[in-house]
């Protein structure tokens, strides 16, 4: 069995090293040959991790002709949205490298099991390959994961068939132990647990079995939510064209927003200033006094579903565009 753990600039040490140790330990308890190695997307000899730029040696280039397991770790760094070395920026840079095409090929290869730890699933989602797939990531990135079209599951480890993902940083231990159990059997996984004096945490989520009955909202909450969606005031205040700038952790976006009243219903579009053929439809537009909300799917600088909350001040729109916990500044001015 070949296990390739992919390294990139800014990678989190524990995301990569914890599974490496588990898989290496498993090789002691089976006659099957297990090769565990750190690989890169290119021919780099080492990468600098996100922890104090600690260097990690790269053994080989990722080889997708090898049957086995590919593991994508996350990144370590700042969570400041204005920091060019923030975790989202490091993940974005990795997703725009040669790793982008390699991830897509790995997922489409039936002889490769793709796994991820922490922000590794976000890196994969940024390449657009996780839409409609059940995955987990670090709790701070769950909403962002949802914004990419993936289905976030709040579990320690999520098994979606040919993709297995782990949650926060230390879940690399649990993910690796589960993969050992799935691929080599529970007896070998148990021996590894005994060797490490660590027992796998949490129930592994799978999309199978009886669907649970979830608790519904109260009547009061339903009534409140209904009243919120029925608010539709002062639509004429935002009708027309607006020049908009959105500053995000992964790049600046420029749009021309157009709001129109179509048979009493407020509708809108956003045209990318850098590519006028890229037009997004604004969805779920609601106006409540000076507060305007809507959702919008964007393709650049990465595929996301953003939620907007904006206030109107004379001929300006100011507010935020949210992708999970990450909020980006939104500024617009009316086009005369």
Structure characteristics:
single chain, 336 residues, alpha/beta, Rossmann fold, Lipocalin, 2 domains, 8-stranded mixed beta sheet, 8-stranded antiparallel beta barrel, 8 helices, 20 strands, 24% helix, 35% strand
Helix/strand layout:
Blueprint: E1 2-7, H1 13-26, E2 35-40, E3 46-48, E4 55-57, E5 60-61, E6 68-72, H2 87-95, H3 99-107, E7 112-117, H4 120-126, E8 134-135, H5 142-147, E9 151-152, E10 157-159, E11 163-166, H6 171-184, H7 186-196, E12 205-206, H8 219-230, E13 240-248, E14 251-262, E15 265-272, E16 279-288, E17 291-298, E18 304-313, E19 316-323, E20 326-334
Helix pairs in contact: 1-6, 2-4, 6-7
Order of helices and strands: EHEEEEEHHEHEHEEEHHEHEEEEEEEE
CATH architecture of the largest domain: 3-Layer(aba) Sandwich
Low-confidence stretches: 220-233
State the shape: elongated
Determine and state the CATH class of the largest domain: Alpha Beta
What's the overall average pLDDT, rounded? 88
User: What is the CATH fold-level name of the largest domain?
Assistant: Rossmann fold
State the secondary-structure class.
Answer: alpha/beta
Helical run tally: 8
**Biggest sheet, spatial arrangement of strands:** 5-2-1-6-7-11-10-12
Distance between the termini: 64 Å
Number of DSSP-assigned strands: 20
CATH-assigned homologous superfamily of the largest domain: Class I glutamine amidotransferase (GATase) domain
Note the beta-strand portion.
35-45%
Amount of helix: 10-25%
